[in-house]
């Protein structure tokens, strides 16, 4: 049955007191979806305006543990919303099979829901109906559904009852203030409901239950919650105390925020303990800080950095272990902060520190695995080996961490650190190449390219070097250091050579995906590669980020892009690039005001980060705040060393402000740069648009299409190109970008 013109309903997959849920086929995007259709009596009571207002608010929530809302509306006199179809079971279905869960599993799922609620609360959205039925399990992880529905229902009459006595919420999980309607409902109601869910996961029953809603309400009004009686293992005192505090009938006696509840569940109180950053902390999480170079030669820093990165990569393969990505971990390089402070900043429970000393062909690696809560070492070891044994040492360190943290692996643990090459000279060149590439300047990336070429020449079967080479070529094209027509085919060739050796290499798939999207406009092939890469390395922040910014954003799939940026941010919380990507998406969504705000937060944390200044300047220009925009872009030009991208943005802002002389001078400077090397024609087009020279802009864009300029794919999302919409030549370019 066709519904609302875009969806073919296939079968009913669920029903409740307010709605029916169908598995459907999204005809426009050729994908399975879940369509939730409100019952007619509910829709009649709500009204379309109220429903769409609340669902519209919920639809802006994008988080890895929240099921996003794709669409909503009114059709055939009913109200509906559309979500991804999640294959798996709900938490209720799992409880029906298992009755109760182990403490680690119950806490893991609770913390994931807490992360989703904390994010929603930060955006002034309270769920109001947290229960096992509204928590889906996707690949073992919790996904919360139905944000917005309870709020829409409650608005019909009161916060407690509507539609002839139907409760907004579920009595067994509802906070007392929600039941009696004597106080406004805020995030503390969600804390109570989440605590009730955790209680049931541990005990098999909710803290208050009875034969009717009236009986449950009476017990909540007259009795205090008691500790679970039948958990699978004895509860630690701090877990029991946190649970009972969250179940206080008086909301002022509960935790002030869900993140405080999450922290109390995971950490026993200690006198003098460093304050923890707001946000849920993973039960099994680690940050590998950059190992200190203790060698007599300072240039050996590439070796200590490389070993640290390899350990991050190896540990990120482990299920059940959250590993902080390189950018965030390396933010503490050279700093002498207390490990407990660092752990609180990164939101981890353990930290690995170490040092590397090289003397000739010998290497000494000293390591300490530290418990963030106490500051004490859980495990320490020193390894004195030949340089050629470095991979064996890394594997021993990884295995010791696994044994110490008791990470629950799926099946028998494989070797965690493979021997990627038998030629240490090739490995050394690879480490030097990655070290230079990570600096992200034009000069350093070119140096990195030469080292990586040497590594591949030395060992043509060295897959890590091949994927590093592919990454380097992609970024050289994106940064405009090499012409895309020269760099991107080499990126694809390097990635495919790596994939012939290691068909499931997540890094190689990511590099090829970006080249396919940005150079070949092969969107389907690129998406297949990104999805395969995430299946192999879900904890790769760069894969999430590149998928979001290189494919999803250009295709205007902003909700999905935001979800992947949120996941990348979770994995790499101190990365200025990922943080800036969230603000950049706001600009692409034509929300320049929020873009300015979010990029301001990035600049406050990372003042020298030129990319944030660059996009904030563009957003300020769209808001006609010309003086601020030009000052911000002047700063971006300075911080970037005068990159063509920032100068183009400055010329665009100058012209929009009416300073045509300055804009033409900037245009001349770009032309001088183009005479010395590659400059994307898209950057010239941007200035010509602001100078009201559309035909010249179109000339440049047609030239960019011939050159396959990497920034062409953003034409439909960058507001500066909107004035060309409707020009036949521009429409032809956009059609060519469809691949």
Task: Summarize the structure in words.
This protein is of the alpha+beta class. It folds into four domains: 2-84, Phosphorylase Kinase, domain 1, CATH 3.30.200.20; 89-266, Transferase(Phosphotransferase), domain 1; 285-419, TolB, N-terminal domain (Rossmann fold, 3-Layer(aba) Sandwich), CATH 3.40.50; 574-739, Tetratricopeptide repeat domain (Serine Threonine Protein Phosphatase 5, Tetratricopeptide repeat). 52% of the residues lie in helices and 12% in strands. The protein is built from 31 helices and 17 strands. The strands form four sheets. Strands 1-2-3-4-6-5 form a six-stranded antiparallel β-sheet. Helix 27 (644-656) runs parallel beside helix 29 and helix 30 packs parallel to helix 31. The model is unreliable at 156-168, 269-283 and 406-414 (pLDDT under 50).
Give the terminus-to-terminus CA distance.
32 Å
Helix content: 40-55%
- Give start-end ranges of low-pLDDT stretches: 156-168, 269-283, 406-414
- Overall SS class: alpha+beta
Write a brief caption for the model.
The protein has 739 residues and is α+β, with helices and mostly antiparallel strands. Helix content is 52%, strand content 12%. Helix 11 (301-315) crosses helix 15, helix 19 (506-520) runs antiparallel to helix 20 (523-536) and helix 25 (610-622) runs antiparallel to helix 26 (626-639).
């Amino acid at each position: 049955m066709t519904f609302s013109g875009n969806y073919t309903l296939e079968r009913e997959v669920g029903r409740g007191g307010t709605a029916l849920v169908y598995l459907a086929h999204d005809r426009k995007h050729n994908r399975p979806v879940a369509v939730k259709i409100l019952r007619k009596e509910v829709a009649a009571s709500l009204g379309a305006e109220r429903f769409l207002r609340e669902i519209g608010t919920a639809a802006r929530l994008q988080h890895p543990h929240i099921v996003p809302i794709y669409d909503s509306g009114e059709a055939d006199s009913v109200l509906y919303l559309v979500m991804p179809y999640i294959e798996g079971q709900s938490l209720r279905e799992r409880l029906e099979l298992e009755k109760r869960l182990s403490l680690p599993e119950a806490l893991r799922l609770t913390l994931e829901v807490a992360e989703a609620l904390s994010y929603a609360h930060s955006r002034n959205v309270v769920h109001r109906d947290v229960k096992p039925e509204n928590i889906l399990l996707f690949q073992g992880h919790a996904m919360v559904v139905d944000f917005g529905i309870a709020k829409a229902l409650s608005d019909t009459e009161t916060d407690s009852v509507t539609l002839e006595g139907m409760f907004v919420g579920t009595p067994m999980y509802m906070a007392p203030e929600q039941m009696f309607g004597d106080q406004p409902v805020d995030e503390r109601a969600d804390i109570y409901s989440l605590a009730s869910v955790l209680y049931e996961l541990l005990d098999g029953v909710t803290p208050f239950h009875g034969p009717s809603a009236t009986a449950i309400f009476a017990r909540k009004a007259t009795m205090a919650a008691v500790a679970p009686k039948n958990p699978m293992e004895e509860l630690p005192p701090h877990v029991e105390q946190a649970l009972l505090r969250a179940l206080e009938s008086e909301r002022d006696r509960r935790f002030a925020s869900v993140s405080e509840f999450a922290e109390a569940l995971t950490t026993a109180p200690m006198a003098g303990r460093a304050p923890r950053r707001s946000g849920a902390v993973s039960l099994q999480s680690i940050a590998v800080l950059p190992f200190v170079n203790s060698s007599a030669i300072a240039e050996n820093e590439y070796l200590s950095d490389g070993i640290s990165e390899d350990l991050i990569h190896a540990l990120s393969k482990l299920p059940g272990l959250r590993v902080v990505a390189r950018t965030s971990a390396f933010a503490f390089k050279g700093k002498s902060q207390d490990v407990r402070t660092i752990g609180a900043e990164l939101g981890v429970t353990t930290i690995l520190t170490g040092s590397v000393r090289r003397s000739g062909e010998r290497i000494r690696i000293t390591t300490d695995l530290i418990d963030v809560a106490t500051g004490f070492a859980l495990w320490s070891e020193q390894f004195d080996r030949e340089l050629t044994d470095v991979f064996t040492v890394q594997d021993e360190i990884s295995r010791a961490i696994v044994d110490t943290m008791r990470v629950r692996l799926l099946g028998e643990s494989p070797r965690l650190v493979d021997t990627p090459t038998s030629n240490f000279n090739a490995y050394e060149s690879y480490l030097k190449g990655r070290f230079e590439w990570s600096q992200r300047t034009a000069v350093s990336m070119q140096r990195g390219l030469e080292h990586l070429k040497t590594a591949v020449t030395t060992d043509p079967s060295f897959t890590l070097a091949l994927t590093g080479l592919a990454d380097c070529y992609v970024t050289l094209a994106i940064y405009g250091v090499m012409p895309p027509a020269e760099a991107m085919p080499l990126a694809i060739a390097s990635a495919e050579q790596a994939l012939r050796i290691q068909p499931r290499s997540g890094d190689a798939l990511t590099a090829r995906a970006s080249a396919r999207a940005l150079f070949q406009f092969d969107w389907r092939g690129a998406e297949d590669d990104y999805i395969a890469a995430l299946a192999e390395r879900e904890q790769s922040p760069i894969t999430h980020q590149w998928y979001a910014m290189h494919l999803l954003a250009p295709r205007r799939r902003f909700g999905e892009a935001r979800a992947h940026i949120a996941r990348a941010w979770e994995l790499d919380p101190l990365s200025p690039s990922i943080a800036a990507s969230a603000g950049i998406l706001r600009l692409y969504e034509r929300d320049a005001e929020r873009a300015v705000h979010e990029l301001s937060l990035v600049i406050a944390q990372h003042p020298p980060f030129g990319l944030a200044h660059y996009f904030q300047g563009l957003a300020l220009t769209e808001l006609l705040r010309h003086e601020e925009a030009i000052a911000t872009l002047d700063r971006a030009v300075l911080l970037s060393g005068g990159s063509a991208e920032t100068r183009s943005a400055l010329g665009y802002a100058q012209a929009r402000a009416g300073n045509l002389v300055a804009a033409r001078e900037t245009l001349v400077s770009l032309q001088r740069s183009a005479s010395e090397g590659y400059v994307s024609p898209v950057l010239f087009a941007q200035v010509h648009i602001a100078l009201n020279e559309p035909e010249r802009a179109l000339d440049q864009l047609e030239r960019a299409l011939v050159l396959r300029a990497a920034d062409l794919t953003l034409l439909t999302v960058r507001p500066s190109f909107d004035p060309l919409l409707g020009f036949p030549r521009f429409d032809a370019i956009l059609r060519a970008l469809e691949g």
